[in-house]
């Protein structure tokens, strides 16, 4: 048979029609599979095209790329209300991906649904439960041993319900998706906040909680508030020490950690072509740190090159034929537009304690001196889902080679995390791994590791003030090593490598000199490396488990005495009454991320056991009453104690409670445990100035009320000793505020208004007790 592209050309000439119409004809014949692992699940560009044309005719205006992909996946494009930032869209995603820490609860919820098979292609990826200690091979063996029960549960649940299973050691979920599952125009949801990584291959890939994943796996249309679209126009080209990471570090400095909330960030412009496909993925990945729904790049030759190199030339050829639908329309409108000249972009480093505190590398040393941040760098860490590509490792190795040539090694400790087994095997073959080892580096397992707090750090004591630099994405207080005094900075892998060699934040590789062992000064040259290997990728070990065709005999066991896994019990339904005399569990001061609400690190082992993991509820949040973490007043005993213990006391005594929060409450990870835990321990509402998108949805899914002050200043009217009554639930309707009566201990009262973003479907979740309860009601 003639090559696909040749068939296209012949048919174009014969029919004399536009390219994408030709592709519609061929799509049915070609039947290009979504991935090599699912040969009978096909890419439906023809349906995407049909839906886009329906919506374009309705809206009668040019469409952004984000709109094309999102609206192209509408359940009912002909009648769906479409208004950016207001309407709720009912969507049909192409696939689901889950990492092992969140997959446990997602699969437990799916089991509770009573369904026999997933309705869309789905995968589980084992990357979160491997702790970095001494090095990749030994750490992986240890993880397989101590997590055997969880891995067995995920493997057997995957086999039972038709979910592909990537074994521990296979790599980080987002790198695996980029290598195997992402493609231009895909709509993918993943139970991890950095799922947007797939936008580097032109897909709309969105981080969600496990309950959202269950909806999609159950074949139910998935709801998403119609996102606004922020355009980032790139001009010029990257060169020298500037890297793709610097683009998102710069954008984070502009938009802050909440500036992208409710929006998709869409990169476009002539500068896009100067960025590799994996570089685009880096930018999209860290878009989670500005609160964006996701980020995306238009399909181009860099994506085509990556698809071909990863064995998916057939997808690249099909995408070529549908390219009109995989790029924005000329003249499309963005709700906000940012312009960045890549030729003028300087290397950046962001931190500490927040990923939007941006500094040029040339200036961070002076800022650190002024602020009293430790200048000496204790550890440099490269890798993570954000920066672990072949190109990233190559650029770091290029820096390392220069230092080695002058007899130098790292002054700081240095670790390397390959993004996948394929990356690990390829950088071993091509010598990059050995160069980094020669510099003093330790190659860790193909896993998340220190980026998510899976790091058995030995070089400091807790409470010791120190600085680390990483190529990761987040640097919240205590995130990497559970030490609140660790000042973590995020930057590109090559800058991390240079700083680890110099050992100080005051070093600027663009201008400063190092001293070789021969006593001569030298300056590091800007690194250069191939974006893809010259030879084919080395796939390494086979770590994928296909679900069997017949799973009727497959059993999934959860021991009733397990400390790692626990079957779920339904949450109680709403009793039809207003919420009277709610006790305030904690009034949170300042930043409260999902790390503060449900810490990771050592707590990851309990992600499949709701009652056990609830013992970390809000232990990182700062109580405004005393300025301390994990210390709140028990309103009955008047004694101060840990937050989880106090919540359990209230639950035992039938006292319902509420949390008061500040701005952007729940930013960070997609972990739905931060919503499940307060629900499990008797919480009824979370009242804040504003919410992060994923966390707000997760709270709704579990039957909680995420509410915001109509007047943010009302935050100051509530005190930890007050009681609250929330009225208006009997007439709970979209857009109508609820009343909150604040009852002060002295007998006085104040009434304030609380806003919400519930739609009719979400109100049904609340009334049923959770989205899962509602699903079961509809099945009956």
From TrEMBL:
<comment type="function">
    <text>Catalyzes the isomerization of citrate to isocitrate via cis-aconitate.</text>
</comment>
<keyword id="KW-0411">Iron-sulfur</keyword>
<dbReference type="GO" id="GO:0051539">
    <property type="term" value="F:4 iron, 4 sulfur cluster binding"/>
</dbReference>
<feature type="region of interest" description="Disordered">
    <location>
        <begin position="531"/>
        <end position="560"/>
    </location>
</feature>
<dbReference type="GO" id="GO:0005829">
    <property type="term" value="C:cytosol"/>
</dbReference>
<dbReference type="InterPro" id="IPR018136">
    <property type="entry name" value="Aconitase_4Fe-4S_BS"/>
</dbReference>
<dbReference type="InterPro" id="IPR015932">
    <property type="entry name" value="Aconitase_dom2"/>
</dbReference>
<dbReference type="Pfam" id="PF00694">
    <property type="entry name" value="Aconitase_C"/>
</dbReference>
<feature type="domain" description="Aconitase/3-isopropylmalate dehydratase large subunit alpha/beta/alpha">
    <location>
        <begin position="67"/>
        <end position="503"/>
    </location>
</feature>
<dbReference type="GO" id="GO:0005739">
    <property type="term" value="C:mitochondrion"/>
</dbReference>
<dbReference type="GO" id="GO:0005506">
    <property type="term" value="F:iron ion binding"/>
</dbReference>
<dbReference type="InterPro" id="IPR006248">
    <property type="entry name" value="Aconitase_mito-like"/>
</dbReference>
<dbReference type="InterPro" id="IPR001030">
    <property type="entry name" value="Acoase/IPM_deHydtase_lsu_aba"/>
</dbReference>
<comment type="similarity">
    <text>Belongs to the aconitase/IPM isomerase family.</text>
</comment>
<dbReference type="GO" id="GO:0006099">
    <property type="term" value="P:tricarboxylic acid cycle"/>
</dbReference>
<dbReference type="InterPro" id="IPR036008">
    <property type="entry name" value="Aconitase_4Fe-4S_dom"/>
</dbReference>
<keyword id="KW-0408">Iron</keyword>
<keyword id="KW-0809">Transit peptide</keyword>
<comment type="pathway">
    <text>Carbohydrate metabolism; tricarboxylic acid cycle; isocitrate from oxaloacetate: step 2/2.</text>
</comment>
<keyword id="KW-0456">Lyase</keyword>
<dbReference type="InterPro" id="IPR015931">
    <property type="entry name" value="Acnase/IPM_dHydase_lsu_aba_1/3"/>
</dbReference>
<protein>
    <recommendedName>
        <fullName>Aconitate hydratase, mitochondrial</fullName>
        <ecNumber>4.2.1.3</ecNumber>
    </recommendedName>
</protein>
<keyword id="KW-0816">Tricarboxylic acid cycle</keyword>
<dbReference type="InterPro" id="IPR000573">
    <property type="entry name" value="AconitaseA/IPMdHydase_ssu_swvl"/>
</dbReference>
<dbReference type="GO" id="GO:0003994">
    <property type="term" value="F:aconitate hydratase activity"/>
</dbReference>
<keyword id="KW-0496">Mitochondrion</keyword>
<dbReference type="GO" id="GO:0006101">
    <property type="term" value="P:citrate metabolic process"/>
</dbReference>
<dbReference type="InterPro" id="IPR050926">
    <property type="entry name" value="Aconitase/IPM_isomerase"/>
</dbReference>
<keyword id="KW-0004">4Fe-4S</keyword>
<keyword id="KW-0479">Metal-binding</keyword>
<dbReference type="Pfam" id="PF00330">
    <property type="entry name" value="Aconitase"/>
</dbReference>
<dbReference type="InterPro" id="IPR015928">
    <property type="entry name" value="Aconitase/3IPM_dehydase_swvl"/>
</dbReference>
<feature type="compositionally biased region" description="Polar residues">
    <location>
        <begin position="551"/>
        <end position="560"/>
    </location>
</feature>
<feature type="domain" description="Aconitase A/isopropylmalate dehydratase small subunit swivel">
    <location>
        <begin position="583"/>
        <end position="711"/>
    </location>
</feature>
């Amino acid at each position: 048979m003639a090559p696909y592209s040749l068939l296209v050309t012949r048919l174009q000439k014969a029919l004399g029609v536009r390219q994408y119409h030709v592709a519609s004809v061929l799509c049915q014949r070609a039947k290009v599979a979504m991935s090599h692992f699912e040969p009978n699940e096909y890419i439906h560009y023809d349906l995407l095209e049909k839906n886009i044309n329906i919506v374009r005719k309705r809206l009668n205006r040019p469409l952004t790329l984000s709109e094309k992909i999102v609206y192209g996946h509408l359940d009912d494009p002909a009648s769906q209300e479409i208004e950016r930032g207001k309407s709720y869209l009912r969507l049909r995603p192409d696939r689901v991906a889950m990492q092992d820490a969140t997959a446990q609860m997602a699969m437990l919820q799916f089991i509770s649904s009573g369904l026999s098979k997933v309705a869309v292609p789905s995968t589980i990826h084992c990357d979160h439960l491997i702790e970095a200690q001494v090095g990749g091979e030994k750490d992986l063996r240890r993880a397989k041993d101590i997590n055997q029960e969880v891995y067995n549960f995920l493997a057997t649940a995957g086999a039972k319900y038709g979910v592909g299973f990537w074994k521990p050691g296979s790599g980080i979920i987002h790198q695996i998706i980029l290598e195997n599952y992402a493609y231009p125009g895909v709509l993918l949801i993943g139970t991890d906040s950095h799922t947007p990584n797939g936008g580097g291959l032109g897909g709309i890939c969105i981080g969600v909680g496990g309950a959202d994943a269950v909806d999609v796996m159950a074949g139910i249309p998935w709801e998403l508030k119609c996102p606004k679209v922020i355009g980032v126009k790139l001009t010029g080209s990257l060169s020298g020490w500037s890297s793709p990471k610097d683009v998102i570090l710069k954008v984070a400095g502009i938009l802050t950690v909440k500036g992208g909330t409710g929006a998709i960030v869409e990169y476009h412009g002539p500068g896009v072509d100067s960025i590799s496909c994996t570089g685009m993925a880096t930018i999209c990945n860290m878009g989670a740190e500005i609160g964006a729904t996701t980020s995306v790049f238009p399909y181009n030759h860099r994506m085509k090159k990556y698809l071909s190199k990863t064995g998916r030339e057939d997808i690249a050829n099909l995408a070529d034929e549908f390219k009109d639908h995989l790029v924005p329309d000329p003249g499309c409108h963005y709700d906000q537009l940012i312009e960045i000249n890549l030729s003028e972009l300087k290397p950046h480093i962001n931190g500490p304690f927040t990923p939007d505190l941006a500094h040029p590398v040339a200036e961070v040393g002076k800022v650190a001196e002024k602020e009293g941040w430790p200048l000496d760098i204790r550890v440099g860490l490269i890798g993570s889902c954000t920066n672990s590509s072949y190109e990233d490792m190559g650029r770091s190795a290029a820096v390392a080679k220069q230092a080695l040539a002058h007899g130098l090694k790292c002054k700081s400790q240095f670790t390397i995390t390959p993004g996948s087994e394929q990356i690990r095997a390829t950088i071993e073959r091509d010598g990059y791994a050995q160069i980094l080892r020669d510099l003093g580096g330790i190659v860790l397992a193909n896993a998340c590791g220190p980026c998510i707090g899976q790091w058995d750090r030995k070089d400091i004591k807790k409470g010791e003030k120190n600085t680390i630099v990483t190529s990761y994405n987040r640097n919240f207080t205590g995130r990497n090593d559970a030490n609140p005094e660790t000042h973590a900075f995020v930057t590109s892998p090559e800058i991390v490598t240079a700083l680890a060699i110099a050992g100080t934040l005051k070093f600027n590789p663009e201008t400063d000199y190092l001293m070789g062992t021969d006593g001569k000064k030298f300056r590091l040259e800007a690194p250069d490396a191939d974006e893809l290997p010259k030879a084919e990728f080395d796939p390494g070990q086979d770590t994928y488990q296909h679900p069997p065709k017949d799973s009727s005999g497959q059993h999934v066991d959860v021991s009733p005495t397990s400390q790692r896994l626990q079957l779920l019990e339904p949450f109680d339904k709403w009793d039809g009454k207003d919420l009277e005399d709610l006790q305030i569990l904690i009034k949170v001061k300042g930043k409260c991320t999902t790390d503060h609400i449900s810490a990771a690190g050592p707590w990851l082992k309990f992600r499949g056991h709701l009652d056990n993991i609830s013992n970390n509820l809000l232990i990182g949040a700062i109580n405004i009453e005393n300025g301390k973490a994990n210390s709140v007043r028990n309103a009955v005993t008047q004694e101060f104690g840990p937050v989880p213990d106090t919540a359990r006391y209230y639950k035992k005594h039938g006292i319902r409670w509420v949390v008061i929060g500040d701005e952007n409450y729940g930013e960070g990870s997609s972990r739905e445990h931060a919503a499940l835990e307060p629900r499990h321990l008797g919480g009824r509402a979370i009242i804040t100035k504003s919410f992060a998108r994923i966390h707000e949805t997760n709270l709704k899914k579990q039957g909680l009320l995420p509410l915001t002050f109509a007047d943010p200043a009302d935050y100051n009217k509530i005190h930890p000793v007050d009681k609250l009554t929330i009225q208006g639930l009997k007439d709970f309707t979209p857009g109508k505020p609820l009343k909150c009566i604040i009852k002060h201990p002295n007998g006085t009262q104040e009434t304030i208004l609380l806003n919400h973003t519930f739609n009719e479907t979400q109100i049904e979740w609340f009334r049923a007790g959770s989205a899962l309860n509602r699903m079961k009601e509809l099945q009956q």
